[in-house]
Amino acid sequence: MYKNKCISVIIPAFNAEFTVPEVVQNLPVWVDSIILINDNSEDGTLESAQNLKKKFDKVDVIDNAQNLGVGGAMKEGYKRSLSLKMDISVKMDSDGQMDPGYLPQLLDPLVSGQANYTKGNRFLHTAELKQMPIARRIGNLGLSFLTKAASGYWNIFDPTNGYTAIDKQTLEKLDFSNLEDRFFFESSMLMELYRNQAVVKDIAIPARYNGENSSLSTFRSFFEFSPKLVKGFIQRINLQYFTLDFTAVSLFLLFGTLLSTFGLIWGIWHWIVSIQTKVAATTGTVMLAVVPLILGFQFLLQAFVLDIGNVPKQLKDSDEMADSLKIY
User: Fold this and answer.
1) Sequence-ordered list of residues with C-beta below 8 angstroms from that of 106, at least 6 positions apart, any chain
2) Cβ contacts of residue 15 below 8 Å, gap of 6+?
3) E strand or H helix that includes residue 33
4) Measured at the alpha carbon of residue 297, what is the angle toward residues 140 and 247, in degrees to the nearest 5?
């Protein structure tokens, strides 16, 4: 136990026969349960997991009959952790890049009641950030901004970081059908957490690289994740500001969208007419395009400012609220 809390560490593993033993052996002795998931590996990962189970009583092995992806494997791990009545469930990858020495920093906000979900952030360490190629840095900036907008957690960064911890009360409320099975899992997790108004906190944890190549390209993930994040953003805005409530943000979004759309269409239409007729648009015509665009932009900007202020700071304990947030 860690500070009177039962802790489980869930390790999804695919083709990790050489790295997973070291990951398990380096975990602190106070970890109560180690849930090791062989995600239909093509190497000797299952044998390594079974050997670890023989060596450590706390190791629990799940052998997936088919490859479920990191998200699918984690769902199985979370279900097992809940069945074992663990107070906190930690996700740790099997490649050895996540330093178990940072587990206390990840757990303390949950134990003290400051957060419901914590995640690592590699970008809070300037030394590691300077070593990162500029192209990858830019890709992460774009992906992080889209994830902030889609999830509503404007206070977090490094959204694809898989070193996470969640308390039992929050985990029990999650709708696993809303969580993706593949690499989009972490981002979909944030969106599902927002629906439950969970408090999420970033923890500065540097990654440990041993010459491995990432299986997830930053730019590939940016282009693959973008449509899903845009869809998530639209769903969140519709649910939060037009379905469950109607606030000043709703008005700013409504008027901002209408004015911007009118100004844009009006301006483009008369620009095309001017080109075709070779007659310059009048000052009044131009102003009818510019003024709505400026006002619309200001309304939308104010809506974003207010939305940033709506980051969950306290868990909604009401079961009725939790159910109402799960309507899609």
Assistant:
1) 90, 118, 120, 163, 164, 165, 203, 205
2) 41, 42, 43, 45
3) strand 33-38
4) 90
User: For the packed helices 185-195 and 134-151, what is the interaxial angle rounded to 10 degrees?
Assistant: 30
Q: Which two tokens stand for residue 150?
A: 């889609």
- How many other CB atoms are there within 10 angstroms of residue 313's CB atom? 10
Sheet-wide strand order for 88-91: 59-63, 33-38, 7-13, 88-91, 164-167, 117-121, 200-204
DSSP at 326: T
Tokens 């330093």 sit on residue = 99
**Cα-flanking dihedrals φ and ψ of residue 120, to 5°?**
-75, 150
pLDDT tens, 102-159? 999 999 999 999 999 999 998 876 666 666 667 667 777 888 899 999 999 999 988 8
Rounded Cα distance, 34 and 7, in Å:
9
| The predicted structure's pLDDT at residue 326 | 47
